[in-house]
Amino acid sequence: MKQVLSFKQMKHLQELGLYHIYTLQDILDKLPCFIGNQVLTIQKLADSYTCLYMESYKITESKELIDAAYDMLCWCIENGYVKVGKKE
C-alpha cells in the first residue's frame, strides 16, 4: 500500500497553492466532508478505489487509496471547494 504522495503529485499540489501535504491523513484533513448537501465519497470496489463527486457526477478510479484521495483533493481545489494560498 502506497503511504505517501509521489514527488510529481506533491509538486502539483504546490502549483495549486497547497503545501505540506504528503500522507493520506494530510489529504483527508484538507478535504471537506460536504459540498452543499452532497457528501464526498471514496469507495473500494473490487481492486480499485472510486471517487464520486457531486458536479456532473464525475467518477475517477485509482488502485491506491492515497491516489483516489489526491484526485479528490485536486478536484476540490480546482473547483474552489478547498481554499488555498497564504492563509493555508
Walkthrough of the structure:
The mean pLDDT is 85. The strands form two sheets. Strands 3-4-5 form a three-stranded antiparallel beta sheet, covered by helices on one side. Strands 1-2 form a two-stranded antiparallel ribbon. With 88 residues, the protein is α+β, with helices and mostly antiparallel strands. It has three helices and five strands. The protein has helices at 7-15, 24-30, 65-78, and strands at 34-35, 38-39, 41-45, 48-52, 59-62. The longest helix is centred in the C-terminal third of the chain and has 14 residues, at 65-78.
N-to-C series of helices and strands: HHEEEEEH
Strand percent estimate: 15-25%
Structural class: alpha+beta
Distance separating the two termini: 28 Å
Mean pLDDT over the residues = 85
Alpha plus pi helix count: 3
Rough outline: globular
Q: How would a crystallographer describe the biggest sheet?
A: 3 strands, antiparallel
Uncertain regions spanning at least 5 consecutive residues = none
Q: What is the β-strand count?
A: 5
Strand order of the largest sheet: 3-4-5
Computed Rg: 12 Å
> Which percent bin holds the helix content?
25-40%
